[in-house]
Design goal:
three-stranded antiparallel β-sheet, 12 strands
Length: 322
């Protein structure tokens, strides 16, 4: 069995098409097909369900695929360990993040690459369910997600910050002059919120319901924080945002943020890695960055800046970064 055969199998499972898998591996389709048939002969099991086109993997093939991910990940981990012994870390850190935490990811990835200039980061936006699956299947080294998510299993958790929720609303809106607002108060505003399939929105819906507003119906829903902010710049809509989004988008001109009455601290967001030994060396290096970066303090500092009664100074960070 050759590592190259396993790479071809992983590519085929990813692309679900022989020609695309071959192109991604820079080989001809007959070469890729022949290598996988040879792997089947060596293991004495059928791996691919074949018809006129790729129809998926057999149950044995799914098990071989899991081991292929594991073996290739261990190979990469060995290379990374050796590179750390000779000239510093090198290789690609495969990192995932839930969409609502992407805005804060640069607080980790930037110092990571600055400290390890030979290393790279591949950062994917993923659901919490996909993160758990890809960690288990050795397709990710580390991820940023909600630490209290029930779908997480067999992972090690490192807290980064707790989400703090704010009303982002036009300066001339009915709630803009208040020091604090309740969830039930803002339910009747013209709202733009994230879509219900996103965990962040489901968390917010729980807070709305707990405050007596169980049936919030936003005028606009989106699965993208960037798209949400794009609508808010029109000056008509209000939204509930996490304070972590201020790091990337700030407060658009003509709007202000108002704290929500509860919870004082929302769900925990942090880093997760698969619960296995040894830890991937690149993931271990990012965890060290996380212990030093002060993500919680950096985000709380932004919160303090944008909630100052008199506003920030003219040359301060308040600007439309949406």
């Amino acid at each position: 069995m050759l590592l190259r055969q396993l790479e071809y199998l992983v590519a085929l499972a990813r692309e679900r098409h022989f020609a695309r898998a071959a192109a991604s591996c820079y080989v001809s389709q007959p070469s890729l097909s022949a290598a996988i048939r040879k792997l089947e002969r060596e293991l004495d099991v059928p791996i691919v369900r074949r018809g006129r086109r790729f129809e998926g993997l057999t149950p044995e093939g799914e098990r071989v695929l899991l081991w292929a991910h594991r073996i290739l990940a261990e190979r990469d981990a060995l290379r990374h360990e050796l590179s750390a012994m000779h000239g510093g870390l090198a290789g690609t850190l495969r990192m995932g993040a839930i969409p609502t935490a992407l805005t804060a990811a640069s607080l980790l990835t930037t110092p990571f690459v600055e400290r390890h200039p030979q290393a790279r980061v591949s950062l994917d936006s993923l659901s919490s369910r996909d993160i758990n699956q890809r960690l288990a299947e050795f397709e990710l080294d580390i991820a940023v997600t909600y630490l209290d998510d029930d779908s997480l299993s067999h992972v090690r958790r490192t807290p980064l910050y707790e989400e703090r929720y704010l009303l982002l609303t036009p300066q001339d809106g009915p709630m803009a002059g208040q020091d604090v607002v309740r969830w039930a108060q803002i339910a009747a505003l013209p709202l733009c919120l994230l879509s219900p399939q996103m965990r962040n929105r489901r968390i917010m819906d729980e807070y709305f319901a707990a405050d007596g507003a169980p049936d919030v119906t936003p005028a606009i829903e989106t699965d993208s924080v960037a798209a949400l902010y794009a609508h808010l710049t029109a000056g008509h809509w209000s939204s509930v945002i996490s304070h972590a989004w201020l790091h990337m988008f700030g407060v658009p001109d003509g709007m202000r943020v108002v704290p929500l009455e509860r919870p004082a601290h929302g769900p925990r967001v942090g880093l997760v890695i698969a619960d296995r030994t040894p830890e991937p060396v690149l993931a271990r290096a990012l965890l060290q960055i996380a212990r030093e970066a002060g993500v919680r303090e950096a985000l709380d500092g932004l919160l303090d800046t944008y909630l100052r009664p008199a506003g920030p100074p003219a040359d301060g960070p308040r600007r439309d970064r949406g």
